[in-house]
Amino acid sequence: LQQRRGLRLSAPAAIQVTVRDALNQALDEELERDERVFLLGEEVAQYDGAYKISRGLWKKYGDKRVIDTPISEMGFAGIAVGAAMAGLRPVCEFMTFNFSMQAIDQVINSAAKTCYMSAGSIAVPIVFRGPNGASAGVAAQHSQCFAAWYGHCPGLKVVSPWSAEDAKGLLKAAIRDDNP
Question: Which residues are in the Transketolase-like pyrimidine-binding domain (predicted)?
Fold first, then answer.
């Protein structure tokens, strides 16, 4: 009908991308770009991530760049902070940000404060990533939003993307940043 009226049909100006796929693309591009970047967290490797954010990355980059961890946020966040201080660029994924509270000492007292406490001589190029806030079916233990709380902690940069484009660009920028 539109063609009969003289209207032209054209392809969409942009391809629709889900936030999940945008985050996956950002991780893939940064893992490809910089060999110091690696991803660690629960179920990020063989299972492709609890929410499939890391889908395909373990098969592409292997066990040394995409690392499944035990259910011990305190432990793997500490490993990630130490790796960042040693010059690597970890992306530390929490299955939900509620579980970051298990690693609060590493996030706040080790990662966030180190640059200031060292007078700028020690960078901590780490990203703490994961879903945050309410969602259907995740109940009381998974529904808190800690963005504002973490935003009040000196030394942390907190981002809450609105769109797939925001998610991809902000994750790439965070991975390239020299501080948490």
Answer: 17-180
